[in-house]
């Protein structure tokens, strides 16, 4: 009786090829992380949109934060990285009666977004405001000193 091909003989080869492709893709992604991180270092919050604009003398970061008050938001600048995070809790009914709701989908929400700026900024001149659910952060670029400094040589 002739040997019949077994249907699972090729599975090992297929899994080996798939494993090699995944490893190659992972190495490629890791090498591109540094380039990607210049723009976006997001940890979560895919539902929160962020824009970074270069307006000549300043960078402007605009973040959609609908339903967030300024007290719900935290804004940090560390080096050339701007981090914006927010957390809001669900609003309780005036009487506190949970049984009045037929459907309740608005719960505690949080987000965290980070963006790396292409140039240094003047930390002391940064301004931020929230208006109509949009956080706008203005980051004036750091002006390099035109003064030449003499350096003593030992």
Structure notes:
18% of the residues lie in helices and 30% in strands. The relative contact order is 0.19. The longest helix is centred in the first third of the chain and has 27 residues. A hairpin with a 2-residue loop joins strand 3 and strand 4. It is of the alpha+beta class. The strands form 2 sheets. A 4-stranded antiparallel beta sheet has the order 1-2-7-6, with no helix packed on it. Strands 3-4-5 form a 3-stranded antiparallel beta sheet, with no helix packed on it. The protein is flat, with a radius of gyration of 26 Å. About 10% of the residues have low confidence. The protein has a domain of 105 residues: Sandwich (Immunoglobulin-like), CATH 2.60.40.
List keywords for this structure.
Immunoglobulin-like, 154 residues, 7 strands, 30% strand, 3-stranded antiparallel beta sheet, 1 helix
Percent of residues in helical segments? 10-25%
User: Which fold name is given in CATH as the topology of the domain at 14-91 and 114-140?
Assistant: Immunoglobulin-like
Strand order of the largest sheet: 1-2-7-6
* Main β sheet profile: 4 strands, antiparallel
In total, how many beta strands? 7
Radius of gyration: 26 Å
Average residue pLDDT: 77
CATH architecture of the domain at 14-91 and 114-140: Sandwich
Oligomerization status of the protein chains: single chain
Family: Belongs to the small heat shock protein (HSP20) family.
Protein name: Heat shock protein Hsp20
Organism: Natrinema altunense (strain JCM 12890 / CGMCC 1.3731 / AJ2)
Domain SHSP: 41-154
